[in-house]
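Researcher: Re-running this chain for the archive, since the previous output was lost when a drive failed. Same request as before.
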Amino acid sequence: MKLGLGIVAKAKADKLKMMTVDDRLVNGLGKPIESVPHMGISATTSASRWATASPPKSRSAAGT
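Model: Regenerated structure tokens:
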């Protein structure tokens, strides 16, 4: 089932800006909806980068 056009219509009705990051939205013919900007960032790659990143250094409370 292709939900792309419904998602775009709802966002437009609610005056929301939108973009896709991992997967593109497609129309009923399976073609990308060109009016929705696409960043093309893999969620899997992003998640694995976050998982292997060093944790932030904690700050000690002032005066201790």
